UniProtKB/TrEMBL annotation:
Cofactor list: FAD
The protein's name: Ferredoxin-NADP reductase
FAD-binding FR-type domain mapped to chain residues: 18-121
Species the sequence originates in: Sphaerotilus hippei
Pfam families: FAD_binding_6, Fer2, NAD_binding_1
Length: 371
């Protein structure tokens, strides 16, 4: 038996907190031909408390560079001694390929979180949602919705959930056997899988094609009355938004994961929303931002974030979420002051050491940064 495993008859371990950092990989599982799950346990005795659907941020040293990536927890907080991430191997993806090729039981990872607001479980004591839920996922976007579904099963919640998952072929369906088991276990949890092609399984008899308004209406008769939770590749989520709007769905009841967890946006690429590249307000005071290592300077208005100003100046800075939660853009501040409204991307001790997140920080003075 693993000596680091908890004593199940003892009192629960303290909760994982912002002061904790190190996780140990205790198990690796193949889910499909290119998707793998990694089960992680705290190095120190800890239990994990979080809302189903939240994510953690890993800090990995790969090729002499510190990289940060966010991965949704597909595990449920009802099983608090471990957390699990499920990672799709992305062609050319530095981190996903490193995890698939190198992460083995016994290896340690630096992590922060859990964090995020994508959850059908409201803060406070768990209750069955009054409104029916519709889970829509594409590819590896199934992970947060599986976390929510697993929590429902473990808690015995009689929640009204319609789960529709889209995949390219039957062999690409993540958690296929567990989806079937959940449908048998939970009386009002119903699942539909739709595949674009049969692939190498000519005997597949399930739904074929792509998610469409007709399919949604056919599978979910009370679609317009439900709360929708959607996660998947950006084109998938964009298509879902268009379908729901066309059908007259009240988009105030639509929720989606706001950024990709598998990799940060390409440096120098256009931001995903107009807000990130908004021009500097002319009436606000302007400060000078200096990048010491690169020898570059740019102006930043007091009314915009440092990341927005850098993008407006044509400079390439790493980022992912643009919401202060993932830590990808973390930068050490050598001088100057900022107003930062982060969402958990930095630990308090890191802030005390001078680190800040350009994506959610506005300057209060001239800044010198260690970049």
């Amino acid at each position: 038996m693993n000596s680091s495993a908890p004593d199940l008859a003892a009192s629960p371990a303290p909760a994982w907190s912002v002061d904790d950092e190190w996780l140990t990989c205790v198990q690796v599982r193949d889910e499909t031909h290119d998707v793998r799950s990694f089960v992680l346990r705290s190095v120190e005795p800890r239990c994990f408390r979080y809302r189903p659907g939240q994510f953690i941020t890993l800090a990995l040293d790969i090729g002499g560079e510190r990289l940060h990536r966010c991965y949704t927890l597909c595990s449920s907080p009802t099983r608090p001694d471990t957390v699990t991430i499920t990672v799709k191997r992305v062609p050319g993806g530095v981190v996903s390929n490193w995890l698939h090729d190198h992460l083995q039981p016994g290896m340690r990872l630096s992590a922060t979180g859990p964090a995020g607001d994508f959850s059908c479980f409201a803060p406070g004591p768990v209750t069955v949602p009054a409104r029916g839920q519709l889970f829509l996922s594409g590819g590896s976007g199934i992970t947060p919705l599986m976390s929510m579904s697993r929590a429902c099963a473990d808690l015995g919640l009689d929640a009204d959930v319609q789960f529709i998952h889209a995949a390219r072929t039957p062999r690409d369906v993540v958690f296929a056997e567990e989806i079937t088991l959940l449908a048998r276990t939970l009386p009002r949890w119903r699942a539909t899988v739709v595949c674009e092609q049969r692939g190498d399984q000519p005997g597949y008899t399930g739904l074929l094609g792509r998610l469409s308004p007709a399919l949604l209406q056919g599978q979910v008769g009370d679609l317009l009355e439900r709360e929708v939770w959607c996660c998947g590749p950006a084109p998938f989520m964009a298509a879902v938004r268009t379908m729901l709007s066309t059908l007259g769905f009240d988009m105030a009841r639509y929720h989606e994961e706001s950024f990709s967890f598998e990799a940060p946006a390409l440096e120098g690429s256009s931001p995903s929303s107009g807000e990130a590249a908004a021009p500097a307000p002319t009436e606000a005071p302007t400060f000078e931002i200096q990048l010491r290592q690169r020898g570059e300077r740019f102006a930043c208005s007091a009314g915009e974030t440092v990341l927005q100003a850098a993008q407006r100046a044509g400079l390439r800075l790493p980022f992912s979420c643009s919401n202060g939660v993932c830590g990808t853009c973390r930068t050490r501040k050598l001088s100057g002051e900022v107003q930062m409204q982060q969402g958990g991307g930095l630990r308090p001790r890191e802030v005390a050491q001078g680190w800040f997140l350009p994506c959610c920080s506005q300057p209060l003075s001239d800044l010198e940064l260690d970049r």
